[in-house]
Write a structure and sequence with these properties.
Length: about 550
Amino acid sequence: MRPDRRKMMFRSILFDSPFYSKILIILLVLMFMYSCSEESPALYEDTSVGNDSQTDIVVEENDTGSDTEILTDDLSSSDVSDIQIIPDDAEAIEDIALNDSFINDAAYDGSVRDSEITYDVPEDSGYNDAVADSGLDAGFDAGYDSGTNPSLRCSGWGMCPDNMACYLSTGICETRDVWKSSSDKFAIYNARPVGVSKGDVLVIDGRRFYYSMFGAMKVKISIGSTQKTAGSYVDENRILVFINGNESGNISITGEDGAGSYPYAVSQIKSGEISCGTDDPPASGKEGPSIDSAGPYAAGYLDLEGKQTRVIYPALCGGLRRPSQKGTFPAVAILHGDGAVYLNYEYLGQYLASWGFLTFMPATADIKELTAIISSFINADLGSLSPVLSGVRTTDKIGFVGHSRGADRTGQVLNGSSLLSQKTVGCAFLGPVGLSYVVPGYFMTFYATEDLQSSDGYSDTYYNRQSAPKWFITINGGNHSLFTDHKVWAGAMMDGQPKISRETQFKVVTSFILPFFEKAFGVKEHFSEQLINPPQSNIYTVEKELK
């Protein structure tokens, strides 16, 4: 029965029934309210210490009192409803009094959602799971309450819950927002890397750092006792912090309407190459089993000091400044749009790096500076940019990905440099905005049906002006925000509410861009049928002209 019909029926019973029926209904309502008021209290606090034999009881909101289940620890694989009776067979940990019930625990504590206050295993420090639970490495465990769940490992798309996405470089599912609502509150989800040195860029993900037009200016960041300035690199969902070389301690952020701290402290580590650790996902050496999976390489990354450019490269293991795979690789420039921090396309850079491409993301929007930076990645020995990249070279060709205004800037760069125009093998545009330049090489454009910033008219104009081979991919239910790692445009004429998850849109984009650049650069093609005869899907449609 439709909801509006139920409302009409209720009103008819309540207002059109005889007097005694009304009295009966009122009595029933009062009895129901009384039964709710007799519900078990929201929390029985653990008052014992030492070898506690008491039980901790947690009652969910809207508890019906109908279920009673036993949990052995905080890492239960299933959520439970109503009453959770949890045997406390070790020293009582009273972190229930310290933020464990707050929205800071935005995604998962173990795998039980933190709107249901739960017990933490004995190794917990008692504050936000900042110390290892169940023997997990502290660096990973820090993410339990902040949005990263180390128990959720991934090596491709479709391996994380809908409210998360795979960060391929570390192989961990991370929390990502998809849409905004009026009930949203400030939260810090993830911060990486927590081991840093001079020149590195710390990326912090969260929710509602600010919400008004000029709210970014109100955001304050500190690492330990050091106040940091993020400048223009503050977004509603992502903040970039440039490391000068003396920062250490917990990350604290004061947003426009909230504040919080990331529980795992930043520490200074050595500069230069970092050896692979036991927790770093290693290069598999094998081609992924499907187009959804990472390729034979791991994804290493580093930031070029003074150039505000991140490089993501094929590596022996994933992570910051990890040992590179020596060899010559095709290079792809990823140009950001306006209103989003430049490090918002790591999902695409890491995926391409795992399949043997070197990608880079410049911060600048200045066409002259962009031209110089992009030119330095053509037929280059990248050891001159960083010792970590010693033995890594690029081919004498270049490819481009442009999101939003990044497509417009790609056109400006290529129409202003005959050298780059001659070296370009292909351009792929994600929700393009701006003038429709004719660009050289192969061409691909993406339009998402809920995108309120880039209409299909932009992609249509680009597509119609380009020569074959060319592809036009429409993502059903996607929007402008989901082309990025973690950006949510919302509000009047900003973006439409998506009907798919962020990782689903990642999957569509990468599944076409990988075979596109393999064909454009003339390297081994792993999934050529994706371009020739794309599989039928209700998520996307494809228009193409191959000759």
